[in-house]
Amino acid sequence: MATVKSSFEQLRVASFESRRGAEMASLIEKFGGQAFVSPSMREVPLDENRDAIDFANHVITGQIDAVIFMTGVGFQHLMKAVERHVDRQQFLNALSDIPTIVRGPKPLAAMKAEGLTPGIRVPEPNTWRELLQTLDVEFPIANLKIGLQEYGVPNPSLIAGLEARGAEVIQLHVYDWDLPLDTQPLAKNLERIIRGDIDVAMFTSANQLTHLLKLAEQQRRKEELMAALRTVVIASVGPTMSERLRENGLPVDVEPVHPKMGPLVAAAAEKSHDILVRKKQVRAVLSASTPNIDPRTAKWYNSPFMKACRREPTDVTPIWMMRQAGRYMAEYREVRAKTTFLELCKNPQLCSEVMCTAVTKLGVDAAIIFSDLLPILEPMGLDLEYAQGEGPVIHNPVRESADVDRVLELESAESLHYVMETVRQTRADMPEHIPVIGFAGAPFTLASYAIEGGASRTYLHTKTLMYRDPDAWRALMERLVRAITVYLNAQIAAGAQCVQIFDSWAGCLSPADYRRYLLPHMKEIIGGITPGTPIINFATGNPALLPLLAEAGPAVVGVDWRIGLADAWNTIGENFAVQGNLDPVTLLADPIEIRRRAKEVLDQAAGRPGHIFNLGHGILQQTPVDNAIALVDMVHEMSSKK
Question: At 5, is the pLDDT very low, low, confident or very high (cuts 50, 70, 90)?
Answer without folding.
Answer: low
